[in-house]
Amino acid sequence: MLAAMDGRDGMRAADSDRQAVAERLRVALDEGRLDLHEYDERLQRAYAARTYAELDDLVADLPAPAGAVAVPGQAGAPAPASSDGGRQVTVRWLAEVWEPWLKTVGIVVAIWAVTSLAVGDAQYFWPGWVAGPWGAVLLVRSVTGLATGEPHRWAADRERRRQQRAQKRALKRERKALAGQQPGAVEAGGGAVDAAGGTAGGEVAGPGAGDQERHPERG
């Protein structure tokens, strides 16, 4: 059995396994078991992990979420037959890389087409000078990024920024709540001061009234 465990720990992890660990880390952050720095560090290690042993080490001190299935590939836990989580990350990364190129090329081709229609003849296809070199650079970047795991680092960075924005929004809500409570406390304190001042004024005014009552007797 130990040999089987060692063999599993040394096996290569799949994208779906990394995604499952990333989800457990996110839940741990939401529950307060990890702070933002720990979450960021573990998330980057999760997307860079190559074996099951590296993934298991990241969640060894975390309980499994209620009703959650164990990490895919763990001992005694069947791995899912298939998952498109890793493919979705790759597709989203490729879309972000190529989106500016697609928009720009679409615009310059439209300009070329309108110009050609205006003169009644197909003009020199100058958009190729925009699409060709830029497309070659993006192609090299895409191939290199896929080979080095860039989509997973990109996904980890996006998730980290999302958590940072969520924490900032929560901090702003807490500050607003505290600011809303402070005016009430100040008003209550001001009322107490006014009451105390009124009492002291009454005590000071008392002797003056007595003097006024004694003046007629002197006259």
Shape: flat
Q: Uncertain spans, ≥5 residues at pLDDT below 50?
A: 1-5, 68-83
Sheet having the most strands? none
Using only C-alpha atoms, the radius of gyration works out to 35 Å
The overall average pLDDT, rounded, is: 75
Strand content: under 5%
Terminal Cα span = 117 Å
Number of strands: 0
What would you call the structural class? Answer: mainly alpha
Total helical elements: 7
Percent of residues in helical segments?
over 70%
N to C succession of SSEs: HHHHHHH
Oligomer: single chain
Which features does this protein show?
flat, DUF1707 domain-containing protein, DUF1707_SHOCT-like, disordered N terminus, mainly alpha, 219 residues, 7 helices
Structural description of this entry:
The protein has 7 helices and no strands. It has 219 residues and is mainly alpha-helical. The chain has a domain at 86-148. α3 (36-48) runs antiparallel to α7 (150-218). The longest helix is centred in the C-terminal third of the chain and has 69 residues, at 150-218. Mean pLDDT is 75; it is low at 1-5 and 68-83.
